[in-house]
Amino acid sequence: MAWSDPDSFATKAFGPYISTIIIATLVAFLLPTLVHFYLYRAKAPTSLPSFLVLGPSGSGKTSLVTLFESGKPSPTHISQAPSTVQVHLPSTTRAGSSQYRSENDPTLKQEKPLQLIDTPGHGKLRHYAREYLQDPPPGLKGIIFVIDAANVSSDSSSSANETLQDAAEYLHDILLLLQKRYTSAKTSKGPKELPVLIAANKLDLFTALPAPLLKGKLEQEISRVRDARAKGLMAAGMGEEGSEERDWLGEGGESKFEFRMMEEVNCPVKVVGGNVLGAEGSDVDGWWGWIAGWL
């Protein structure tokens, strides 16, 4: 049967037949819908956005996580293993991806879900946090490093110095790992931006250092940690010629370390104060605001 015959498929496909009109209508309406759902499933995230919570023991990590989860802090104990909880961004805090939406958009009133991954802070259990950073979850948006700002005062007491040194050593290792993540990338573009929030906790206490002073203290102590480890490597026979630049945190280890140096490796660092507990209640708006900015 030739294509020009009245009963041929080609003739009926372009002729004024009821079947042709019905099929054309179904294709016109169903095809865009099917394509939309296919693209949506292909592009939609398969997991919730997550933030890795870490820091020294006693800094208030788990209390922070329980506050974000239930709206009120609860008694906690020393964590022995990582735990993941689902929380919701408060409806009063706008996500960064929604900043250009209209105030009348009903979706703005919906609480945006996310995950917090709480990791142990004990020195022997910090490998959990490193493992998460070496193989990050697909939805990892940032890192929250909690520190007890009330126990890192400006005096020279041994306990304050030990707390500061422990926090600086832990933070140094995390930032160095993030730096290596960038410098060892196999593409010129590098990995995606992974910000770090240093949550200065317990600022409601009189002995707490304000966020700007804590920032300077941490930068100073991290510089000491970096220099001490560099001397240890050289003493072990690994001189400058045997060490790669990426083994030094910051700009080659030649100047005082500053958090701004991490911006060059797609890892902006910000210090924000707040408190989980307090006589007048908790103050975590600054931390929620930072989280919202990366959603």
Report the span from N to C terminus.
61 Å
Secondary structure: number of strands: 6
Radius of gyration: 27 Å
Q: Briefly, what CATH class of the largest domain?
A: Alpha Beta
Characterise this structure.
- The protein is α/β, with parallel strands linked by helices and 295 residues long.
- The chain has two domains: 9-41, no CATH class; 49-293, Rossmann fold, CATH 3.40.50.
- It is 37% helix and 13% strand.
- The protein is built from seven helices and six strands.
- It has helices spanning 9-13, 18-43, 61-70, 127-134, 158-183, 211-235, 285-293, and strands spanning 50-54, 83-89, 112-118, 140-148, 196-201, 269-273.
- The protein has a six-stranded mixed beta sheet with strand order 2-3-1-4-5-6, with helices on both faces.
- Strand 5, helix 6 (211-235) and strand 6 form a beta-alpha-beta unit.
- Helix 4 runs parallel beside helix 5 (158-183) and helix 5 (158-183) packs across helix 6.
- The longest helix is centred in the N-terminal third of the chain and has 26 residues, at 18-43.
Topology of this protein?
Blueprint: H1 9-13, H2 18-43, E1 50-54, H3 61-70, E2 83-89, E3 112-118, H4 127-134, E4 140-148, H5 158-183, E5 196-201, H6 211-235, E6 269-273, H7 285-293
Parallel strand pairs: 1-3, 1-4, 4-5, 5-6
Antiparallel strand pairs: 2-3
Helix pairs in contact: 4-5, 5-6
Q: Concise description?
A:
This protein has 295 residues and is an alpha/beta fold. It has helices spanning 9-13, 18-43, 61-70, 127-134, 158-183, 211-235, 285-293; strands at 50-54, 83-89, 112-118, 140-148, 196-201, 269-273. It has 2 domains: 9-41, no CATH class; 49-293, P-loop containing nucleotide triphosphate hydrolases (Rossmann fold, 3-Layer(aba) Sandwich).
